[in-house]
TrEMBL record:
PANTHER family registered for this protein in UniProt: MONOACYLGLYCEROL LIPASE, MONOACYLGLYCEROL LIPASE ABHD6
Membrane-crossing residue ranges in chain numbering: 6-30
Lineage summary: Eukaryota, Metazoa, Chordata, Craniata, Vertebrata
InterPro entries per UniProt: AB_hydrolase_1, AB_hydrolase_fold, AB_hydrolase_sf
GO cellular component entries: AMPA glutamate receptor complex; late endosome membrane; lysosomal membrane; mitochondrial membrane
Reactions mediated catalytically: Hydrolyzes glycerol monoesters of long-chain fatty acids; 1-dodecanoylglycerol + H2O = dodecanoate + glycerol + H(+)
Pfam family, one: Abhydrolase_1
Protein name in the entry: acylglycerol lipase
Record's signal peptide: none
GO molecular function: monoacylglycerol lipase activity
Amino acid sequence: MTMDMVNLFAISVGTLAIPLLAFMVSFLLWPSTLIKVYYWYWRRTLGMQVRHADCGAYRFCYSYRGKPGLRPSILMLHGFSGHKDAWLSVVKFLPKHLHILCVDMPGHEGTTRSSADDYSIQGQVQRVHQFVECIKLNKKPFHIVGTSMGGNVAGVYAATYPSDIFGVTLICPSGIKHTSETKFDNQLQDLLNSQHTLSIPLIPNTAEEMEEMLRLCSHVRFKVPQQVLQGLVDVRIPHNDFYQEVFMKIWGESSRFALHEHMHQITSPLQVIWGKQDQVVDVSGARVIAEVLSGCRLDLLDHCGHSVVMERPRKTAKLILDFIISQQSTQNASNKKQC
């Protein structure tokens, strides 16, 4: 082997080794940075673009794909302490021509956080409506999707602004007086009865607590490396005081059963998706909704917990799309009869 070939081989190995070494160092020392890069790459891969909507002094951050078309636009509201990228796993399985918007909820991720803001369910509904009007999303009725806290907000939004809404999909929504207690309910009750400072299971401070939260929220057992767990915690810790404030608001007297108190006012077609093994918000809430709104569609998923979006993204996307298509078909048939 000539000296030129040896040098070329060394340069090639070095070129490959540097990014690999950078990845390993980032994984071990800065996992939170790697997680942010991961979401950025996934958004680009799926064609999601990040935008900001300035409504006076308030700024909303959201991602979107597609343009308004024959199908209604879809607005997706994430759950407590989440962010717009929580929907990427579902967006992956939705047609690219659909107009999809995933917004950071009030105070979360890139949306304005203010100590003077109202983070109750009703307060969040008003902010989401401000966003909708700011980007003129309600020029045509849109489909709203919400999970957990976002489901509570989505349901109350549909009850409050019925003319904005084409249809509603609630995924394991909070805000319902379910008939059975969950593991999460019991944990909170134990904490409230104890003399210790309230430590909320959905607000982890260590990698071990993060792992426990994932077990609480998921029926499927994901094997998550310790470094990734630590990275997930590192991303959240600067926001934990805010999360505690929001939790106390949505779990407070005025918001805890907001959806239950408003659901009889929902007039739009309604779909409820729930994991049968949900340990956070009991699946019995689905039957409670169905008893009040007899025309709603129930999709209860076997071997699935509270994190339906993470555990069953393909199935979730299919159920949402099928529901929208069926409602459009029903609406078109009704219009033809009237003509």
